């Protein structure tokens, strides 16, 4: 992805969050220059990958295979003194914009439609060999438990949520004709380095072409810009 595209998407996201009255924490507004002057009081943000996250999953086609995220809070499974055992993200999913099939070995999460259009979620259990299972899938959705056939698509209207159990393959996108979706995620600690199993190998973070200076740092870029 080009840096200019990422910059534009972050500016667009700020407007979208404002439209839905979702207020970001102060560090969302730190510029790369400001980060250079932030001391160790802000190490949790750097260490736990809080902040902006824009990815095309290595597809080169963000509009059709991408995801926009902001990690608001997160613990760290690798730091013994970090007692925070939960994470929260806010995401933006466009119509027809697919997040590819993946599951998590450790993290259990709720995916929540916070507003806008409808979120479509397709689910499969994983076999012991990490393939798609033909077994029915147990769905946990806002206190309701029921089963659906493998490969079913669940529609989340604004206000609805679904629980993603460990080793449950899921892919999601915004329903065509219904508008961009504001999506929340509440989960156990997020560990993008070790806890994502994509069905088809892909890049978790985008490769960036630096065609202009960054407007904001992405959550995986702090080491590149901050000593």
Gist of the model:
With 227 residues, this protein is mostly beta strands.
Task: For this entry, give a set of tags.
single chain, 227 residues, mainly beta, Jelly Rolls, six-stranded antiparallel beta sheet, five-stranded antiparallel beta sheet, 13% helix, 33% strand, globular
Q: Estimate percent helicity.
A: 10-25%
> What summary fits the major beta sheet?
6 strands, antiparallel
Average pLDDT metric: 96
Q: What are the low-pLDDT stretches, counting only 5+ consecutive residues below 50?
A: none
CATH architecture: Sandwich
End-to-end C-alpha gap: 25 Å
> What's the count of strands?
13
- Kindly give the count of domains: 1
Pairing-aware structural class of the strands and helices? Answer: mainly beta
Going across the major beta sheet, what is the strand order?
1-2-3-12-5-10
Shape: globular
Rg calc = 17 Å
* Element-by-element helix/strand order: HHHEEEEEEEEEEEEEH
Strand content: 25-35%
């Amino acid at each position: 992805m080009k840096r200019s595209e990422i910059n534009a998407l972050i500016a667009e996201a700020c407007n979208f969050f404002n439209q839905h009255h979702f207020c970001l924490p102060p560090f969302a507004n730190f510029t790369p220059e400001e980060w250079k002057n932030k001391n160790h009081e802000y190490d949790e943000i750097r260490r736990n990958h809080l902040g902006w996250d824009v990815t095309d999953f290595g597809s080169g086609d963000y509009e059709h295979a991408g995801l926009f995220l902001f990690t608001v809070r997160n613990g760290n499974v690798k730091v013994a003194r970090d007692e925070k055992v939960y994470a929260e993200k806010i995401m933006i999913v466009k119509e027809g914009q697919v997040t590819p099939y993946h599951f998590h070995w450790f993290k259990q999460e709720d995916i929540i439609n916070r507003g806008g259009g409808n979120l479509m979620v397709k689910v499969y259990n994983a076999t012991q060999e990490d393939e798609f299972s033909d077994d029915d899938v147990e769905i946990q959705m806002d206190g309701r438990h029921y089963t659906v056939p493998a490969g079913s698509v669940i529609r989340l209207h604004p206000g609805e949520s679904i629980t993603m159990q460990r080793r449950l393959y899921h892919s999601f996108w915004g329903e065509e004709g219904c508008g961009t979706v504001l999506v929340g995620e509440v989960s156990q600690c997020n560990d993008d380095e070790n806890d994502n199993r994509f069905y088809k190998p892909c890049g978790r973070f985008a490769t960036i072409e630096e065609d202009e200076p960054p407007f904001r740092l992405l959550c995986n870029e702090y080491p590149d810009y901050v000593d």
